[in-house]
């Protein structure tokens, strides 16, 4: 059986970074953990803590497409599930005829991850801890 430990984070691409940053920090009260401008992508990435835990990634991209799917569209970017063994999780999904992308490494954390999709095409991620 696939063992998912918890939800690791939710990533959201916003259409107006400053407005969204103000909403998530000043209206909802999420704490800024880390903020970085990714020059190569002309994109901001804001890591937010919810109830003392890192749970929300807020991204900006120039002119994101107005659609609820990938790639890099306004709205929900993907939902990530924390796993201990990414290869085991991929094998389990493969046995259920779920295709995953090649494993990648997060450039900021060095952690491994992969993406797959639900039946409606919603991007989902396995993130190894």
TrEMBL record:
Keywords: Metal-binding. This is VOC family protein. GO terms for molecular function: metal ion binding. Residues 6-129 form the VOC domain.
